[in-house]
Structure formats: structure tokens, C-alpha cells
Amino acid sequence: DTGVSQDPRHKITKRGQNVTFRCDPISEHNRLYWYRQTLGQGPEFLTYFQNEAQLEKSRLLSDRFSAERPKGSFSTLEIQRTEQGDSAMYLCASSSRGSGADTQYFGPGTRLTVL
Amino acid sequence: QQQVKQSPQSLIVQKGGISIINCAYENTAFDYFPWYQQFPGKGPALLIAIRPDVSEKKEGRFTISFNKSAKQFSLHIMDSQPGDSATYFCAAQTQGGSEKLVFGKGTKLTVNP
To answer: Which chain B residues are closer than 8 Å to A108 by Cβ?
Structure first.
């Protein structure tokens, strides 16, 4: 257990529905990342927060996706009007800004299945 | 455009053998190269990492070899054990900014007893 938790662990939804995932990072970590991992692939970067500010978004993050990190604590990732292509594992990671490279600690992920 | 290429896709090794996974990158701005290990149903976990000013780093049975001029790096697992069976991802990162990780596609390692 890395200390990063994600909820729910699994989500099955029908095409066109909205879904929301939650990530609770390690408490003292000010950096939070969302990645998406499809079967047989490595995780792909979606977006990055430093404290409450969303500082970078991947072109993979279409306008149906939105992420927030109110008060720089937990984060939510919402997908509106889900499509079958959204089926994937959504991973959250956190790290603490400091000198040098900061290890990103990953949560267990939320597996989304869109029917 | 795949920025980090990883091979092989899958690897089967006998217990006690050496597992070798290779990665190549294109972006010379990358300056930190971690390896992550992922078990089924879990998120990736950092295994070992290296900076390009070092040609080799060893931690226990795990060694990273780095060739800056060739833009290649590899993971060697000595005395492979069945418990090492997992998917391994190489990654690359640029310090400063978001420091997002760019991952390879992964190598599924199976260590037979």
C-alpha cells in the first residue's frame, strides 16, 4: 500500500453516462497526477496538479474530461458522456516537490468499463 | 509517436536466471529514468531509477545500465525469482515543470520455478 487511495476500484457504466473518480494522495504531497492505462500499454499522462492549480493537461484529455483538486487535497476526475473507448484503468499518483527527482507513488487505480 | 520504446513485450525466464529488459528513448531532454513494477490489480511501484550522468546503478538483484550516446537503458534482474513475475515498465522524465512520466509499453515477465 503506497498511501494513495482511489475510489471506486471498479466502475461499470453504460455509454453516455457520466462517471466520477476520486483520488486521495499521500497527505503531504503537493503534486498529483492522473494517468490512463489501457490493456497491454503503459500508463499515459492525462493531467497534473500542483496544490490546487491544474498546470498541465494532455491532448488525450478531451473536453468530456474534467479534473479538480479543491484545496489541494483530494482530486476528482469526471468523464461526461462516456464512450466505449474510455474503458481503461485510471491511475492517480502523487509526489512531493523537492530538489531532484521526486518519486511518484501510484494508487491501485479505478478500472472503468463502458458497455 | 512513441517516445520510449521497450522490448521485449514478454519474457519467460527460469528461476535463478537473468532477466533483461531494454528501453530506448528519443527525447534528449529526458534526464531521469525510473523503472516501475506492476502486479495485477495494483498500481505501478518504483523499483529503481537512474540519471544520465551515471552508467550503471545497482540495488540488490536489480541493475540499470545506461548508455547516453545510444539513448538506451536496460534493467537486469539477477537470480530471478517467481515472485519477480510482474509487468515492468521503463519510463522517462524531464526535471522541472510537471515532471510527468512517459512510459514504455511494458514487459510481462514470467519466472518459472
So the answer is: 41-43
